Known about the structure:
alpha+beta; Helix Hairpins; D-amino Acid Aminotransferase, Chain A, domain 1; CATH 2.40.50.140; 5 domains; five-stranded mixed beta sheet; 25 helices; 38% helix; elongated
Amino acid sequence: xxxxxxxxxxxxxxxxxxxxxxxxxxxxxxxxxxxxxxxxxxxxxxxxxxxxxxxxxxxxxxxxxxxxxxxxxxxxxxxxxxxxxxxxxxxxxxxxxxxxxxxxxxxxxxxxxxxxxxxxxxxxxxxxxxxxxxxxxxxxxxxxxxxxxxxxxxxxxxxxxxxxxxxxxxxxxxxxxxxxxxxxxxxxxxxxxxxxxxxxxxxxxxxxxxxxxxxxxxxxxxxxxxxxxxxxxxxxxxxxxxxxxxxxxxxxxxxxxxxxxxxxxxxxxxxxxxxxxxxxxxxxxxxxxxxxxxxxxxxxxxxxxxxxxxxxxxxxxxxxxxxxxxxxxxxxxxxxxxxxxxxxxxxxxxxxxxxxxxxxxxxxxxxxxxxxxxxxxxxxxxxxxxxxxxxxxxxxxxxxxxxxxxxxxxxxxxxxxxxxxxxxxxxxxxxxxxxxxxxxxxxxxxxxxxxxxxxxxxxxxxxxxxxxxxxxxxxxxxxxxxxxxxxxxxxxxxxxxxxxxxxxxxxxxxxxxxxxxxxxxxxxxxxxxxxxxxxxxxxxxxxxxxxxxxxxxxxxxxxxxxxxxxxxxxxxxxxxxxxxxxxxxxxxxxxxxxxxxxxxxxxxxxxxxxxxxxxxxxxxxxxxxxxxxxxxxxxxxxxxxxxxxxxxxxxxxxxxxxxxxxxxxxxxxxxxxxx
Length: 675
């Protein structure tokens, strides 16, 4: 992104975030989800880090919260109540620590090993409590960070906040913490609201915020709010010691906080609570990470609205914002055309998403979606990623309207409308397309194990793949997002696909599904091409090599002839097929020329027939070994057969070989011949 483009994007983001933050922090209502808002804030922060001269005083990264409500008296904080910058990944955490170390070293602070204190990040409302002679005097919201709202009377209704401190508390004590609502209490309140016909609340945080701002303390008391302290305006050597001091004076703190020796331990703490968060009695959306050493924490100072030495390491949101870079249209197994949004990669629900189905043209119209739009992407549980909202206020005017194609992207037939669906006008298109994909990944072709017909069908229907080349662009997150596909199975599939990017020339030719071209014909064509050039190592070079072959030359290749030659010639000159080869080339497909295609080989002139099951190798692997040594494969036994390789439970080919006195090899004897 250029600086001028970044400036425009930053201004758009600032306007949208300020609008959403005001609604969230002041009016206690959400225009978009907290996860989506976090995504916008993170994008703004990253752009400002890349172009620091574009940071302005009015940027949301430079302030804390909304304005104090008019209906409460104002209270000025002794020290600013700061907010925290967010991190969403290990890379974000490493970048934060690097920035911190660079700053501290620039300030002359010697750093050896930094220790961290990690606490759970509750989704509640930050408050400040002031005690005089051990007695609670005032309670205030964060407000704008400098001035908050006086909510003392409401604070006093919360049972977990002591009105009097214990154990000889100092004359003046200022503590900070989080007011929150348990899941159980949230559910109870919503049941009562529903029963009385009142408003059903979206999340516990909104209820907590609304409850603490009630003018009638009796309403606040009825909500049974809870509280955890997390900070103290006093001298302590470490943040861990600060927590012990709070506990000593009777202020309730979260029992699950922990000292971590390094970022690896921080990551483990984060991963643990990401898995265990549902077991907690209250909502959390991440962890808070502090530099444990209080002296270093203070020396690090503040940048914008946040302390340099602390960060909120959030869990992957169930909703996030990203940009629709393109809309692809894929043909499913029934011939239905599915539009799929190609997204700027974004983390949603713990996985990286690059595609999201748009289902049909009506859905695109309902969303008012254009190519280039900033959108909210949602994923919960086993639900595939969905584009749920378009942030139209972030448009620049360069967005493009999308139109469904009038011709099928697979076979060029006219597209017809059937209800909400657009379908290929050729009723055989979907089935043929599906069979071509099965053939492509079969053992004679790319031999992608674990990618069977059911999975191919699923990928086609969900719009993950449109042609064979898309298989090699699948990302783990796109597969893991599908129901019944865990991260491990997704990783296994993607790794298997990656391992199959290099294959012999004859198998690539066979995988293309050219009419009349079986395995043996593919081998004959590969031999002819290799005889002409030993430099065919990519689909792009294969295309140019085929361009140099005339139809007459193809027809003179032994065993190819006029019919097969015409089929091959026509296939390589079809625009859609050439596009497929170009995309395979871009996907990183590499071609190998086995030794037998370059010269002779010890099996040169020998013909083998395989029958029965092999234990030490698959049938396809055995064929490859024979061909790599110059041998030929036949599916039937004749007097011209050189050897029959018999595995377990051989069939009729074994009996015919005995009748014709053709040499029969055991698997072990065959292995010895291979050497």
